[in-house]
Amino acid sequence: MYSFIGKRTIRRDALAKTSGTLRFVNDLEAPGMLIGRILRSPYAFADIKRIDVSEAERIGAVTLTPDEVPQKPFNPRLVSVHEVTFKDTYVLTKKPRYIGDAVAAVAAPSEELAQRALESIRVEYERIYEPILDPFKAMEPGAPLIHEKIMKGSEWIRVEGNIAASLNYVEGDVDKAFQESDVVLERRFKTGKRYHMQLEPKAVLCVPEPGGKLTIYSTTQSIHNTRILVSQIFDIPLSRVNVVKIPIGGSFGSSIQVNYLVPIAVALCLKSGKPVKIAYTREEDILDHSNFVFHFRIKVGAKRNGVLTGAEFENTLDVGAHQVQPYPLLGTSLGWFVSMYKWRNIRYIGRAVYTNKTPACALRGYGAPEVQWAVETIMDELAEELGVDPVELRLKNYVGRGEIFWGQGPTVKSIIRSDGVPELLEKGKELIGWDKRGDPRGKKGRFRRGIGVARGFHTSGAGGPISGEVIDYTGCILKLNEDGTLDYITALQDHGGGTLDAHVKIISEVLGVPPELVNLASASTENTPYDVCTHASRGTYVGGEAARRAAEIVKSKIFEYAARLVGKAVNPEAFKIRYDEGLKQAVVYIEGTDVRIPLSEIARAAWQRNWGTIGAFVSYRATSAPPSFTVYFVEVEVDTWTGRVKPIRVVAGADVGTPVNPDMVEGQLHGGFAMAWGMAFTEDMVYEENGELAGRGLITDYKIPTIADVPAPEDFKVIIASSYEPTGPFGAKGIGEAAMNPAVGAIANAVYNAIGVRFYELPITPGKIVEALRKGGVQWD
């Protein structure tokens, strides 16, 4: 059907990455560059009386204290509109609120000297407080306020009970629905606190230019938001700040916000007048960001025939010490819940609470993996209570085609126009052998196997027919070169999943130009239109549509110039375009005639005859955020003696509309399952009573899945639904976050099917499994 879309091709950055020649921020240097280091608080909650930097200055370092930087609060995430953006963060603080909070910084010509200078700084603490590590204790009357006041938009507001933000919602009559239900279940859930463990720890290089200009190279998902925030903090005109897009070594949401080291590097650069580079160690990086800890209380009701009647959802977020994005997360969590199933009556109580822990931010799914784990667990329980097949209960109640989809919260609503859920569930049942999974009560022996199912989704962007509280638009520039090749420029970041390869294929499909002739040009804030951020799995759906529109404009201009070349009364609409294998380029032609003009000839004529450059500038906002549905069937084996769980088989299904890069879709599903396995069984940031992380080591302390924790390739089957999204470029939707979201639910349900025990707190460690089996009186025969 297509010439380039859907074809399996070698990634454009494959050689550079595999050969080690691709340059990330930490690989960059500048003449006269200083190395920056950040002094972090050893206390989780304290007041600073005095900072002595005299010795650091004596040995030749440039120093920075809170008194030397703007004391204006900011939020490092600029994805929400100004009015609902909460601000409580400072470049450097006099009141550290978690172990790792930045209190001073230095820069020196060498890393050794910078470290010596850092260690020479003396900080006198006026008062050290008992840290608050539990959100429910933080809300107790009389609990010390971690923040007494913060800024919302342009207004200062007081913080009550350490509640950073709240959101409540009611639809229908929930109490009546429960009274009329035949079955009512209520459960509490708690997730772990996870670190993103992206391949690249964060780094920044800030270079001063003549005339007071700054050029910034940063680990970021948004070069434009980085530019805007630097301008706001330091009162520098945007025209004097240029942020250059550099390849990013993964993110998983860890760089949606402008990273804390960026304004510190800028301040050191401004003070010293020299380039300054700061790069985190892995141990520092884990103190910079983590995910939110979710505490859920979910109550659901249903009729005996399987029809859902109502649901109550209480969501308490552990924000950590600073706000990055808890208010919008309260809304998206509600959106994930509402758009899973037709609850009919809903009551939502959402609150985000400060604690003295590492600040939280999005981690692949922005709350959806957590919500969908809890929902899919309780749906499995409900099916068992009703005596119906769990797959059939889901099919009967899920929110699908033609129904209202909440996208990322109550302000982002649209209609679902593509839906591959029935196809994925039916094919998955067949491939996994669903009907042979057995009852956990009849399974015996040390090693017991179980099969679980879960379904879910993620949005493709955060757009809607009416602009809500989320900023969501992108842009690009596309121009035809005089030899028939193209330059494509976009600020949209590729996290490593092949997003920009998808853009190139979309452009190629419109113009008939093979992907190898489309150049991904260097991008910066100076030469690109605004892109909010590569998040919400919007890269292909939103960014790809901008690329398609730009290609259509370029094609229209090509036809206009071709008509001039033909020199007759030719209607440009008569032209068509296709790839010519012999010429290795696209040609413009008119069916039934001998008119056949290579693209290079048209471009050269435009150059030589002064017709002007053939190009397009597009700024685009999507008016929908269609769900990319995913389904997982997982078979596990539980060792009842040790509590260890082993994955046996996986069937992963994805409804991505038209798969632009099918191999990338498969790769995302494999990666999504691996991350889900870590979330389910091993990943957690454990805090000591004083607020110190129990362990920060990459290998010894924080356990992420390895190749040994995933099934062999032949035991991992991928299904791609045959769907088409009419609002997406060539029918495409997103996949990145959807690839992980329901997998934890399927894994947990598989564990239940193996041993007959459900778990409501993550991670499900071997110790928890063994303890639960002992309490249940399991027979280890």
UniProtKB/TrEMBL annotation:
Domain Aldehyde oxidase/xanthine dehydrogenase a/b hammerhead: 19-129
One MF term in the entry's GO annotations: iron ion binding
Keywords: Molybdenum, Oxidoreductase
SUPFAM superfamilies on file: CO dehydrogenase molybdoprotein N-domain-like (SSF54665), Molybdenum cofactor-binding domain (SSF56003)
Record carries keyword Oxidoreductase: yes
InterPro entries in the record: Ald_Oxase/Xan_DH_a/b, Ald_Oxase/Xan_DH_a/b_sf, Ald_Oxase/xanthine_DH-like, AldOxase/xan_DH_MoCoBD1, AldOxase/xan_DH_MoCoBD2, AldOxase/xan_DH_Mopterin-bd_sf
Keyword Cytoplasm among record annotations: no
Pfam families given in the database record: Ald_Xan_dh_C, MoCoBD_1, MoCoBD_2
The protein's name in its UniProt record: Aldehyde oxidase and xanthine dehydrogenase molybdopterin binding protein
Species annotation: Desulfurococcus mucosus (strain ATCC 35584 / DSM 2162 / JCM 9187 / O7/1)
